[in-house]
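Async update (no meeting this week)

Hi team, since we skipped the sync, here's where things stand on the single-chain job. The sequence we agreed to prioritize is pasted below, unchanged from the tracker. I ran it this morning and attached the output directly underneath so nobody has to dig for it. Comments welcome in thread, and please keep replies under the output.
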Amino acid sequence: MKITTFKLSILIVLFSISYSYAQNYYPKLNNLFLYEEQESVFNNETVFFRIGLRKYFNKLFYSNLQTSNNGSSANSASFYSLKIIPRFIFETDFFDENIKLKFNVGDDSSKYPSFPVIYNEIVSVVDNFKEGSGNITLDKGTVSLKLADKLLSSSSKSSIEFLIERIDYKFKNNIFEIELNGQYTNDVKINKSKISKDSNRTMKIIVKNNTFSLLALADQKELKLVEKTITKDDFKN
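Output:
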C-alpha cells in the first residue's frame, strides 16, 4: 500500500539520513508515500515541498507500520504508527542553509536504532480540492531543527536547537501550515522577548506560492526567521 497524499509528508521530523546497512533489511520510507504525483495535494506553486521531502526521505527506512483508515474517497480519517530507522545522529540542510534537520536515536543501542512516530489525519474533498489537518507525536529529542546563530540569539556558546515533540498541520487552498511544538535547547532571545529553554514553544512552517517560510512565536507574535523562494527546479541533480 502506498501513501500518496500529504500523509507523512509532514514528518517535518524525518528528512535526510545517510544510507546505512538498514537498507538491506527495511523498505525505504520514500517508497511508501508521496508516490503518485497526480494524487498529491500539491499544486505547481507548492510541489517543490513534495519534491524536496521525497529527496530527503530517499535515505530513510521504516518498520512496524500499522494503519487504520475510515471513510470514503471524498472524506477520510487515518491513523498511522511506524518506526523510523536512522542509523545514527545525522543532520542536513532543510530547505535553507541556515536550518538543519537533525535526527537522534538517543540511547537506543540496538543494531538498527529507531524512534516511533504516531499521527492522525483527516482529509476532505471540497470543490475537487483536498483540504485537511493532522497531528504527529514524537519522542522529544529524536528530531530537531538546528538553527544558525544569525536566526536567533543566545547567551550560550552551544548551537541552538528546537526539540520537536508534536506537529500539528493543516492544508487548505494550496497553503500548508505546520506548527512545530517543543522546546529550545538554550535560552533564546527573539526581538526583545526572552524565552526560557524550559518552556514549551512553537515554531511554524508555511508553504505557499513557491515560498518556504520559518517563523518563531513569542509573546503571541510571529517573527519570520526565513523566507525563501524555491521551485521544483532547485532539486534537480
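Quick observations from my side:
The chain has a mean pLDDT of 80.
The radius of gyration is 17 Å.
Reply here if anything looks off.
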